[in-house]
Amino acid sequence: MTTASPDLDLAELIADTEGEIVRLVRDRDPSTHGLYEMVRYHLALDGKGGNGGKRVRPLLGLLAYASIAGDHRRALPGAAAVELGHNFSLVHDDIEDGDRERRHRATLWTVYGVPQAINAGDTLFSLSRIALHRLTDLGFSDAKVLRLMRLYDETCLALCEGQYIDIATSESDEVMSVEAYFDMIGRKTAALIAASIEAGALLATDDEDVIRRYRAFGWALGIAFQLNDDLLGIWGATQATGKQASDVAHKKKTLPVIYAVEHAGPEDRERLVELYRLDDPSAEQLGEIVRILERVGARDYTRDTALRYRDQALAELDAAGVVEPAARARLEEIIVGVISA
Questions:
Q1: Do 201 and 64 meet the contact criterion of CB atoms below 8 Å apart?
Q2: Which of 16, 208, 213, 334: CA 20 to 30 A from 317?
Q3: Which uninterrupted H or E stretch holds 225?
């Protein structure tokens, strides 16, 4: 096993991932230069000071690889694929949700229009697939690259399934069960984070037990990540998310709302459902929704559940038994930082 640097720098991992992405989008057909301008704009790689996000998913994949194999650089194409794939889903999500701001910038569709934004999202997906092919050039076996591609395709399908459930339930007056919600976020959020980490482990080792443990680590972390996002969507500050805390205004049925409908007393439940059916609730009515959620313990339940999954993630990581200290420290730094709302 190669020793990881004790000074493993997250900023360096992010910069290396972005360098890999930039390499993919340069020197393309000049007649389609505007397309890659859109790609760079969304990724905040256009040199105009935008915030491209924390790059958590590629970071986790690179750290998973480095925690087993040492130097992260051979895994960079996989990290780039994960980030590009995640961002293709974000471009489409923004259109589907009607969101006008992400990461303190206007969303892609509001700048370039819906048709071109959809095409740019599809371009991000295609680039993510192309990124994986470079693993062959770096000496990974065809069997390993093919397995990684299968993992990637299965993950993208799970994302589409989760998004279908999300859209379908948001358009319905019915509120899904807590159990059904966990199934949905397992497909929509946890699947990608689990795959990012599994991919790093898969590239680093042939030990199937280690790969399984890393996937379980990623799955639990992904659930915790989504539950924290649910908290931020209602109670989070704009500075933390890059967008308004608008889940209630958009009538999104995230875990706090679903839990409240299941566990509230008859009066609170009836009022909550009534308010969620309003087409254009006032600020006072939105505030009333939040007060009901807090009164029935939905905020505390969501945070406590997120913490439980976070701790489960750490336990799975330690059970793998192969983690280099420097990478382990950086992984824990990210994991513990997940719960911020």
A1: yes
A2: 16
A3: helix 208-235
Give the contacts of 233 (CB within 8 A, at least 6 positions apart): 241, 245, 246, 247, 248, 252, 254
SS3 274: helix
Distance between CA atoms of 47 and 130, rounded to whole angstroms?
24
Q: Is 239 exposed, middle or buried (0-12, 13-18, 19+ CB in 10 A)?
A: exposed
CA-to-CA distance for 294 and 301, rounded, in angstroms?
10
> Rounded to an integer, what distance in angstroms lies between the CA atom of residue 306 and that of residue 185?
13
- Tokens standing for 50? 């935008």
Distance CA 42, CA 50 (A): 9
Cβ burial 202-230 (10 Å sphere, 16+ → b, else e) = bbbbeeeebbebbbbbbbbbbbbbbbbbb
How many CB atoms lie under 10 A from the CB of residue 95?
17
pLDDT in tens, the chain (341 residues): 344 444 678 889 889 999 999 888 875 777 788 999 999 999 998 888 777 778 889 999 999 999 898 889 999 999 999 999 999 999 999 999 898 998 889 999 999 999 999 999 999 999 999 999 999 999 999 999 999 999 999 999 999 999 999 888 878 778 899 999 999 999 999 999 999 999 999 999 999 999 999 999 999 999 999 999 999 999 986 444 444 457 888 788 899 999 999 999 999 999 999 998 888 889 999 999 999 999 999 999 999 999 999 999 989 988 988 777 887 788 888 888 777 65
CA 120 to chain centre: 19
User: Can you read off the two tokens belonging to residue 263?
Assistant: 């566990």
Q: Do the beta carbons of residue 131 and residue 178 sit within 8 Å?
A: no
